[in-house]
Design a protein that fits this description.
single chain; 824 residues; 30 helices; 41% helix
Length: 824
């Protein structure tokens, strides 16, 4: 058979359909090479009753015939259907007209489970949107997350960025002998300058490998024979994980891979790019060709990497019919970097706007958790510097407002002093937007209400409510309850806009079931709701796919879509009016000054006017206050992780059932204290408290505690008979990260989840991803049951102590974990 062409059923090039011809017949082969479990292709084959087989390497594939037809013009056309859905028209010359695609949501849910149940009409969708319903903005997205991997790879080649050896090793990239030799020589030299770290060779190796770099263009273009292997691996590293849902720690890792490209340094020694046309991926080759043409354009010649990122971000949005964007960026709150960024924006955006018609503005983003621990307390010093910078740049026409970002693992009221300062800035800059990420997970269901209340309470006499948006708003009190109805009235009274982006909710393990999504209820109540992508390139989506997902997955009708469209129009009009108004005011402020001079003066005033921030509760460094109780985990023995009180939110009352008590009683009775130890959190409620009460010192119990605690928690923890492990996170809801790092990633373990909310779901997801943990979830844990159902085949649900027989086989080591297999 002769190879003809290939195309993809998804944005991330994970579902590949290769086309072949022989004697006027057409055949296809479908592969999912980036998915290691095989769930995606297996569920796809089962849904459409397609023949699943294996290739010569033992990898699962689907093979079939594409029927041929003659259309009304007597043209021969091959039409590929899956079920009742037309997937593509394919012409004899290899031209492919794709008619349907698989949204990132459906792809993720298929990858997550061994038993996929979503309807086929929501799995493979037709890519058409009514013209009067088409959204034209992306109001919720993040810097460094907008460009698809192929564009980043092309930028990395054209700007010849430095690519660290660490990532070459981490991704198992293939390099030539010449490249290998040069890297080894560099490594030997750099290793001499980095002293040995006692008992920490792994960290030293990482530090060395981060500093040993190769010109990325050299890695790809002078290594064309391995490009077909390397490019898909690099592409996969620039989006969240493929085989199922990710958690926030996975997202943070993806950003590190992306920073190599978005914040990259250009190599000192450049190479010729003449081999770019030989790159086996035609999209990357095409992007490089366009970038080389830009270099011959006086408007874009010799641009910095950041300016090119702005240009290509706008071009990407233009392709999707978007013309107004607000991007969250933490650079704009950093004193030493904000002005340089804005100078670049002012230098290139007029030309970008003229070419694309896309207006890009920014939200200066503050992180929601204080990062600096000074001796025994967490201070607001970082926030003070951040807010001074926000106040300085708030007059800039490209600065739309502010944002509070990061994993939602703390009560937003902890940041009320920060919100008060932002509200003060909004008093002076009337168009200033205050956006807060809230309600993204079910751990803190009052955060949406409390976010609005923090702003409302911060208003000065006579001050109007500023433009306010809530990013996500997915989890709140039940909207049908009295408290929920009060929330709806509160949102309406304060004219707050809610932003939704369901693909990131699913891919980041915050949404496992689409049936209870609140968007339709909000729309029915008359609340202004808009769409965002949350940085679509991270999640294999874009503005068009996101709108299709809202329509298909949540069953929005045309009237509901139009209602969102009207809300979007209002926000766009306000944003563009603010841009032009601030542009005229800035022109007057500048007069004979430069941007540097103006912002230097404004920064000086901000530093003098802004007082120190006072946070309500004093925090103590756990590594200091628990120093006598901190012990490393045993090298030998089976960790049994008990998820209960510490994995619930503050408002959820942890209940113990008789069945749960009997499970713990049986384990305490039958397990060997020399071979088994328990791991719990720091709240000591529910199953954790019952375990401690019954154990009475027989088994070793290790409690993971936050990096910082208040006085009440410090006293409570010291009273318990436990050994301490200090988490890397300062919030109880972040404890799952340390349990994952110290146990789930490194050794076999058993997880028994009796109760939990979002933190419990994240712990379960981490356990599932690492495949070294046997997971048991109580049927009584109603918040966790939906999670269990979404990873069918990877967990055991139990409703009685009868299951303890199987538990004991895993706890005792009688049952062992299979090694990972390469067959997919």
């Amino acid at each position: 058979m002769k190879y003809l062409n290939c195309f993809y059923l998804d944005k991330e090039k994970d579902i590949i359909i290769s086309l072949y011809t022989e004697k006027n017949q057409m055949f296809y082969t479908l592969r999912t090479p980036n998915h290691g479990t095989g769930n995606l292709i297996t569920n796809l084959a089962g849904m459409f009753n397609l023949p699943l087989t294996f290739d010569e390497n033992g990898l699962k594939i689907i093979k079939g015939t594409v029927p041929s037809y003659y259309d009304g013009s007597d043209r021969l056309v091959y039409i590929l259907h899956f079920g009742k859905t037309k997937v593509a028209n394919i012409y004899p010359d290899g031209t492919v007209e794709r008619k349907a695609s698989i949204p990132a949501i459906a792809k993720t849910l298929m990858s997550q489970t061994k038993d996929y149940h979503l309807d086929y009409e929501k799995t493979i969708v037709k890519t058409y949107i009514r013209s009067d319903c088409k959204f034209r903005s992306d109001l919720h997205t993040h810097m460094n997350a907008n460009l698809e991997p192929d564009v980043l790879i092309a930028l990395g080649i054209c700007h010849q960025i430095e690519y660290p050896l660490y990532y070459i090793k981490k991704l198992s990239l293939r390099i030539t002998e010449k490249q290998q030799k040069k890297l080894e020589e560099k490594r030997e030299k750099i290793a001499l300058s980095i002293p040995c770290m006692q008992g920490n060779d792994r960290h030293r190796d990482r530090k060395i490998d981060d500093q040993v770099v190769i010109n990325f263009a050299d890695l790809i273009l002078n290594n064309i024979e391995n490009a077909e292997w390397n490019i898909p691996k690099i592409r996969a590293s620039l989006a969240v994980m493929k085989d199922g849902q990710a958690v926030f720690t996975n997202l943070e890792k993806v950003y590190l891979y992306r920073y190599v490209f978005t914040k990259g340094k250009e190599s000192k020694k450049k190479i010729s790019l003449r081999n770019a046309g030989r790159i086996p991926d035609c999209d990357i080759a095409r992007f490089i060709h366009m970038m080389q043409n830009d270099q011959r354009n006086s408007v874009y010649a010799n641009q910095s990497l950041f300016r090119d990122i702005l240009l290509w971000t706008a071009r990407t949005y233009q392709k999707h019919g978007i013309y107004y964007v607000e991007i969250s960026d933490t650079t704009l709150v950093k004193k030493d970097k904000a002005l340089d960024m804005l100078k670049d924006v002012h230098a290139v955006m007029p030309a970008v706007y003229k070419e694309t018609g896309v207006m890009i503005r920014f939200l200066a983003s503050l992180r929601r958790i204080p990062l600096t621990i000074v001796k025994d307390s967490i201070t607001g010093a970082d926030y003070r510097d951040n807010l001074q910078t926000v106040q300085t740049v708030s007059c800039d026409p490209y600065v739309a407002g502010s944002d509070i970002v990061g994993e939602e693992i703390n009560d937003i009221r902890e940041l009320k002093p920060v919100i008060q300062e932002l509200t003060g800035i909004a008093e002076k800059e009337k168009s200033f937007v205050i956006r807060i990420h809230a309600g993204e997970n079910d751990g803190l269901k009052d955060n949406v209400y409390n976010s609005i209340q923090c702003v409302a309470d911060s208003l000065k006499p006579g001050q109007l409510m500023p433009h306010m948006r809530i990013g996500h708003g997915l989890y709140t009190a039940n909207l049908n309850s009295t408290k929920g109805r009060e929330l709806i009235s509160y949102i309406l009274d304060h004219h707050v806009v809610l932003e939704f982006q369901i693909t990131s909710n699913v891919r980041l393990n915050n949404l496992n079931s689409l049936e209870k999504h609140p968007l339709k209820q909000y729309l029915k109540a008359g609340i202004m709701c808009v769409q965002g992508t949350d940085g679509g390139a991270l999640y294999g989506t874009d503005s068009i796919d996101e709108q299709l997902a809202l329509e298909k997955m949540l069953d929005l009708n045309s009237d509901e879509i139009l209602q969102m469209k009207h809300a979007e129009n209002t926000v766009i009009e306000e944003g563009m009016h603010a841009y032009y108004d601030k542009k005229q005011k800035l022109k007057k402020m500048l007069m004979n000054k430069t941007l540097d001079q103006l912002y230097s003066e404004r920064m000086s005033k901000a530093e003098k006017s802004m007082k120190n921030l006072l946070f309500s509760s004093k925090q103590y460094c756990s590594s200091t206050v628990f120093v006598k109780n901190i012990e490393p985990l045993p090298v030998a023995g089976m960790p049994v992780i008990i998820a209960g009180g510490s994995y619930n939110n503050d408002s959820h009352r942890t209940c113990m059932h008789d069945d749960d008590r009997r499970v713990i009683d049986t384990i305490l009775k039958k397990a060997d204290p020399r071979k088994v130890f328990f791991v719990i959190g720091s709240r000591f409620t529910g199953s954790e408290k019952y375990l401690l009460d019954k154990n009475q010192g027989r088994f070793r119990v290790y409690a993971f505690v936050p990096a910082a605690v208040d006085e009440r928690d410090m006293k409570k923890i010291k009273q318990q008979d436990v050994k301490i492990r200090v988490s890397i996170e300062s919030s109880v809801m972040g404890l799952y990260k340390s349990v994952n790092f110290e146990i789930l990633k490194r050794r076999p373990s058993v997880l028994i989840a009796f109760d939990g909310n979002s933190a419990g779901m994240n712990l379960i997801q981490e356990a599932k991803l690492n495949r070294k943990c046997r997971i048991f979830i109580s049927e009584h844990a109603r918040f966790l049951k939906s999670k269990a159902e979404s990873i069918e085949g990877y967990v055991t649900l139990f409703s009685s102590p009868a299951i303890t027989g199987e538990m004991m086989k895993w706890i005792s080591g009688e049952k062992k974990f299979k090694k990972k297999t390469a067959v997919i």
